[in-house]
Amino acid sequence: MQDPTAAAGPEPLNPAQQAVLDELGASAEDRPEFPDDLRHHLRAALETAVEPHLDDLPDGVDLYLNKHRLAMVHGCEARFLAEEDEPFEWRVPTARGSVVHKAVELAVNWRGPVEPPLLVDEALASLEADQKNLSDWLQGIGEAERAELRSQALDAFSKYLECWPPLKSAWRPVTESRLRAEPCGGRLVLDGKVDLTLGTARGLVAGKVIVDLKTGGTNAVHREDLRFYALVETLRMGVPPRMLASYYLDQATFVSEVVTEDTLRATVLRVADGVDRLVGLLHGDRTPSRVPGPPCRWCPARADCAEGQAWLEERDEA
């Protein structure tokens, strides 16, 4: 039994929690300084690249772009169009992330012991009361589906608490942070919502770390998602984030990247190419590409896609 007269102190960190500190920490000399005109150059480069494509939009129509849309249009364009036509429906796997992120947000600001079941229940109650679309779905699901959602969210949130050290207020943790930029006079809207940010810039010296919390396995597109966030943050603030990190809860591992000007300029080109594809597919005569792969299994266009069916048959026979 613990000695009740012993002085209370911070809980020791386990190896996974210490690894988070080692990965994300940086000394003052390791924090890069960026030019004060960087965001102006990036905005000018982006606007020069995308304006010819935006001129093909119908009058009064703006183009909305987030990380999901950008990733989809750089993959199988036929699947992108099929999913654009499908009305969004909440399901347990998509709702789980919202519940976990809300629980993390509560944990950052929670007074008293952090008990995973309690915070997951509080997150569910908050989402049911506050977010219209998800609220409607939560209010309409049965007990079995709700129990499945709670179980999956509790698993992911418990892994987060096991793997991450308690976030100190001095680190300036912010969850579900919205980022937005509207270049080209608002005809292009770049939008995102970051799972977690830590730190902040000091003058022109980068200090912010942008983190995406992930379940499941690694995927190259996750890095591109974070680079998109870095570009929007730079257009917004003028100073890029210092580091980008995908954290995989099931594996307790990072895939991280230090942000450079080359990273941002490459992302400008990717966004411009995505705008070209989007405008051509949605408002022009671009023939959608077909890129068969694992997503074919749940693609809404699967029944009418010969390439996807052939790919699935080959895998089923292997």
What does this structure look like?
The chain has 318 residues and is an alpha/beta fold. It is 50% helix and 13% strand. The chain has two domains: 20-85 and 170-281, Lambda Exonuclease, Chain A, CATH 3.90.320; 92-168, no CATH class. It has helices at 15-24, 38-54, 67-73, 77-85, 92-109, 116-130, 132-140, 143-163, 220-237, 261-283, 306-317; strands at residues 63-65, 174-181, 188-198, 209-214, 243-248, 253-258. The longest helix is centred in the last third of the chain and has 23 residues, at 261-283. The N and C termini lie far apart (57 Å).
Q: What is the mean predicted local confidence, pLDDT?
A: 92
Oligomer: single chain
The beta-strand count equals 6
Main β-sheet: number of strands, strand sense, barrel status?
A: 6 strands, mixed
Tell me what the CATH architecture of the largest domain is: Alpha-Beta Complex
Gyration radius (Cα, Å) is 22 Å
Low-confidence stretches: 1-9
> What top-tier CATH class of the largest domain fits best?
Alpha Beta
Shape: globular
Give the termini separation: 57 Å
- Helical content band: 40-55%
Q: Which sequence of SSEs, written as H and E, runs from N to C?
A: HHEHHHHHHEEEHEEHH
The total number of structural domains is 2
Task: Provide the structure class.
Answer: alpha/beta
CATH fold name of the largest domain: Lambda Exonuclease, Chain A
Number of helices: 11
β-sheet strand percentage? 5-15%
How would you concisely characterize the structure shown here?
The protein is of the alpha/beta class and 318 residues long.
Keywords:
globular, 6 strands, 2 domains, 6-stranded mixed β-sheet, alpha/beta, Lambda Exonuclease, Chain A, disordered N terminus, 318 residues, 13% strand
